[in-house]
Design a protein that fits this description.
Length: about 280
């Protein structure tokens, strides 16, 4: 019976792919339940299904989804035929705002360095021009002492000004390069956590006619955890102690949890619960 069921699922999936009704599903996170190790994510999405067989592909999910924890339910005039998941190494997760801000800061600093280098190039060319023509006055016949003194003073003042500006620009460029190096180190650290392949959940469905459909998708990822901490405050020995209970949450799923309902739990989602048998 298991062999027949497996063949039936494979046959249905083949029919879906043959008809090429592949529909991407962009889902939104509605709730996360964070365990001491691991997190269950609940997503919701709505689409319009065409008549016949289709393959609905939920994209942009964490790469470490536990396949055994995937749950998909739907509402509408359609049937869910099979559920599977795969890893997509070609599409990275969307860049967080922090990474985009770092990239923008680095580009701004590089633009500033390019502008400083242009100014430095102009002063270098002016210095080369003065050095090439510094003896013209002395090589001309009939140059009097006053004119030579004036030319020498102009050359000295102008060269001092050029050298001063060259030194200032070189220091500014060095400072900008140091700032870029810091931003790039921070960016590399963030990218090492964010540049991960994404996972996709493949949902084979069948509809007798074109119909609206809504999906609820749940799965567990290992890339999150939390631990408790406590603050104890007391004004004096005659006052009750105030105990503040905090949950320190960390996650590297690549998902944006901003504004999402969070629940913390001390349960272990991977523990198999079996009622004990008491021997009389």
């Amino acid at each position: 019976m298991k062999t027949i069921f497996f063949f039936w699922v494979v046959f249905l999936s083949t029919v879906v792919l043959a008809q090429k009704n592949i529909i991407p599903l962009q889902s939104q996170i509605k709730e996360v339940t964070i365990f001491l190790q691991g997190v269950q994510v609940e997503r919701q999405a709505s689409i319009n299904l065409p008549e016949g067989n289709s393959l609905v592909v939920a994209t942009g999910l964490p790469s470490d989804i536990n396949p055994q924890t995937i749950q998909v339910s739907g509402r509408g005039d359609f049937s869910i035929l099979s559920i599977s998941n795969t890893t997509n190494f070609l599409v990275d997760q969307a860049k967080p705002k922090e990474i985009l801000a770092l990239e923008d800061s680095i580009q701004r600093l590089k633009d500033a360095i390019a502008e400083k280098n242009n100014q430095l190039y102009v002063f270098n060319q002016e210095e080369a021009f003065l050095m090439a023509n510094k003896e013209l006055a002395g090589q001309q016949n009939g140059v009097n002492v006053a004119a030579l003194k004036e030319a020498t003073e102009y050359f000295r003042n102008r060269m001092f000004d050029i050298k001063s500006k060259q030194l200032t620009l070189s220091k500014q460029i060095s400072d900008l390069q140091k700032r870029i190096s810091k931003f790039e180190n921070q960016l590399n650290e963030r990218n090492s956590k964010n540049n991960k392949p994404t996972s996709e959940i493949l949902i084979a469905v069948w509809a007798s006619k074109q119909t609206p459909a809504s999906f609820t998708i749940k799965y567990i990822s290992n890339s999150a955890s939390w631990y408790p901490s406590y603050d104890i405050k007391v004004k004096d020995i005659n006052q009750p102690v105030q105990l503040t209970y905090k949950a320190n949450i960390q996650q590297q799923t690549g998902e944006d949890w901003k504004g999402i309902k969070m629940i913390v739990s001390t349960a272990n989602p991977f523990q198999v619960a079996t009622k004990p048998v008491f021997q009389p």
